[in-house]
């Protein structure tokens, strides 16, 4: 049975969340395009998959727990793009470390797979 682009997107997002929760760097990075760009919550720019992988690997090494809540989704199948807005929260129990930010992700459908092209994070005041 052929899955629709929207079903494929849902599956990709489920894999993204599972890989992130498991701190599985290889599975997480498989969801990014080679030419992806990320702006982390500090404002630092990471210009390709290799740099993004180093940053995400660093975050995974901190042992943070995360909560990603989808706030909005726009899909344009005419242009094979999707934009998501997430409420993202990282914490580090038992300390009181807390990092709360909005994440905007742009994904593109290429060769039957959704891949992250852009991820931009903006800190929120607590």
TrEMBL record:
<dbReference type="Pfam" id="PF14534">
    <property type="entry name" value="DUF4440"/>
</dbReference>
<dbReference type="InterPro" id="IPR027843">
    <property type="entry name" value="DUF4440"/>
</dbReference>
<feature type="domain" description="DUF4440">
    <location>
        <begin position="14"/>
        <end position="116"/>
    </location>
</feature>
<protein>
    <submittedName>
        <fullName>Nuclear transport factor 2 family protein</fullName>
    </submittedName>
</protein>
<dbReference type="InterPro" id="IPR032710">
    <property type="entry name" value="NTF2-like_dom_sf"/>
</dbReference>
